Amino acid sequence: MTVIPSLPFVRPALAALLFVLGAAAPGVGRAQSRGELLYGTHCLACHSTQMHWREKKQVVDWPSLRAQVRRWQAADHLAWGDDDIEAVAQYLDALYYHLPPPSPRAVVSARP
Asked: Quick check: is 83 in a domain?
């Protein structure tokens, strides 16, 4: 005979299970930025972490970071706008480059 626990005992057990599963899966429940979503969807298949810290890296400042994002999205025919390019550049900077903040004038447009 199968005994089915009453509802008051199921809720705490279910809550504990969901908590444990959430703790075991980092990033679950965390809102991703637009830049992270675009990069993860379109770029991550070819660009590993090594791409961003290799010795011959081409990103040395904000203009070069934006130029590289613009270059590679165009090569993949993604037709991103300035906002998307800026979002990906900001995501990559936060994750890999840690460049000094751009001057306010430099943020007006992501175009070179």
From this structure: yes
Which two structure tokens, joined as six digits, stand for 87?
Answer: 């979002």
| Structural domain span for residue 83 | 34-107
pLDDT at 44: 84
Look at the chain and report how many structural domains it folds into: 1
Query: Residues 66-72: contacts with CB within 8 Å, 24+ apart?
Result: 66/110, 66/112, 67/112, 69/110, 70/110, 70/111, 70/112, 72/43, 72/47
Does pTM surpass 0.70? no
By CB atoms closer than 10 A (0-12, 13-18, 19+), residue 87 is buried
